[in-house]
Structures are given as C-alpha cells and as structure tokens.
TrEMBL record:
InterPro entries: DnaQ, Ribonucl_H, RNaseH-like_sf, RNaseH_sf. SUPFAM superfamilies: Ribonuclease H-like. The keyword Transmembrane helix does not apply. GO terms for molecular function: 3'-5' exonuclease activity; DNA binding; DNA-directed DNA polymerase activity. Its EC number is 2.7.7.7. Signal peptide: none annotated. It comes from the Bacteria. Residues 4-169 form the Exonuclease domain. GO terms for cellular component: cytosol. It comes from Coprococcus catus GD/7. This is Exonuclease, DNA polymerase III, epsilon subunit family.
Length: 245
C-alpha cells in the first residue's frame, strides 16, 4: 500500500470538463498513513448554479460569491499535490477536470493515481452499488457531509485504507499506482469579436467584467454569452453571429 499520497475530490457545475467548471476542491495529504495537510476551497464560477447542483452539493451562489478564481485556486492545488500519487473515487472524473483547468493556465499536473472505484469493482462484485456512499455504508465509514469535496475526500481516504487492509495481500496489483493517461484538448482563447461582444454585454446588463472572463477560452465565452442572454436578454443591436466568429 502506498503510504504517501494526496486524496482529492471536486464539486463541479456539471459532468463535462469541456462545458462545466470546478466550484470546490477538497483534499488531504497523507504521509506514512497519517493526515499531514488539508486543502479545502470554493471557486467562483462566475455563473449561477443550477438548482440540481445546489440541491446535490448544498452549495449556493452566495457561498461562491466571495471565492477566488479558478486560476488562483487550481494553482495552489497543483502546488499542494507536489509530485505525490493521487487517490480518488472514480478518479478519472476529478483528474480530467483538474488536468484541463491546469493546462488552461499552463500549470503542470502529471500524476500516478489509484482509483478506489476500480478496486471496489474487482473486490466487491457482489454489491449492487460501488458508489462512495454505498461503500461507506458497507464498511461503516461515516461521511458527515456527502457531496462536499473535503468530506468526500476524507471518506475516500478511509475507504482506501480499509480496502488495502482487507484486499492488498490477495489483490496487490490493484493497489499499485497507475499513470493517469488523460490528455486535455488544447483550448483556443476567445476571439477578439467574442471579447468585444462580451464586454458590451456585461456593460449593457451591468455585470462586472472580471479577470476570470478575460482568461476565457473560445468555447467558455460562447457558453457564458448564451447563458447571459438566456437569463438577461439580448442586446438588440447585435446579431447572434457576432459572438460565434
């Protein structure tokens, strides 16, 4: 069993790393089997959360309003992880989001990883569900605030240690870190026309144009404009094609 590692979990605005963004990162650094450091921070997505995400996570728009931007928080999280092995439940999901965010800001994020879901699918084929909640219930692991990033990361750390206790001797290969092979697609920065339209739209609807908007990719800018028009309305003097060129 790996003794030194970082367990982490994310909460996001949706399921697609291409379309959605991170709103919370929770992690703990384990050294020689003991928690040595913690990381827990919200991220301001500069967009309203859907009712479904708020109900699932318990996170509200007000909770995120004063949070720092993605670039700053992800930068701190990359530093927190150093070169440790990363552990997660359904690790590929969280790793993809983090990797894409890191590459967007030219930050290194290359790690070997261990996925407790992958382990559970092999050693617990008898269980109807291998979700984090179901496995915590199976082993009597208490998660006081499920679907919040830090608490899910802590529960995952306990699950990893429990699985290793019972199954590492019989299934040693499951506990060997694997290189995370996800390669993020290169993101194109937003066009000059998009940026000009975005600034005009913000001014028209009295929305602050902030540093995070300045760093948007072409696809992010298009989605943000779509959502803003849907919520606040279109500027009559512009055509739809202006923002998609």
């Amino acid at each position: 069993m790996v003794k030194d590692y970082v367990v982490f979990d994310l909460e996001t605005t949706g399921l697609s790393p291409d379309k959605d963004t991170i709103i919370e990162i929770g992690a703990l650094k384990v050294i020689q089997g003991k928690v040595a450091d913690r990381f827990s921070e919200f991220i301001n997505p500069h967009q309203k959360l859907t009712q479904q995400i708020s109900e699932l996570t318990g996170i509200t728009d007000d909770m995120l309003a004063g949070a720092r931007n993605l670039q700053v928080v992800v930068g701190d999280f990359v530093d927190f992880c150093e070169d440790y092995v990363v552990v997660g439940h359904n690790l590929g999901f969280d790793y993809r989001f983090t990797k894409m965010a890191a590459e967007k800001y030219h930050l290194p994020f290359e790690h070997e990883g261990i996925d407790t879901l992958k382990i559970a699918k092999t050693v617990h084929k008898d269980l109807p569900s291998r979700s984090l909640g179901a496995l915590c219930e199976h082993y009597g692991i208490i998660n006081s605030s499920a679907h919040r990033a830090y608490h899910d990361a802590l529960a995952t750390a306990k699950l990893y240690q429990t699985l290793a206790h019972y199954f590492e001797t019989s299934e040693p290969k499951l506990f060997v870190p694997e290189k995370m092979g996800f390669k993020a697609k290169k993101q194109q920065p937003m066009t000059k026309k998009q940026k000009a339209y975005l600034k005009d739209l913000c001014k028209y609807h009295k929305i602050e144009f902030n540093d995070a908007m300045e760093q948007m990719t072409m696809s992010e800018a298009s989605r943000w404009i779509d959502k803003t028009i849907l919520q606040y309305g279109r500027m009559k003097r512009f055509n739809r094609s202006d923002r998609n060129e």
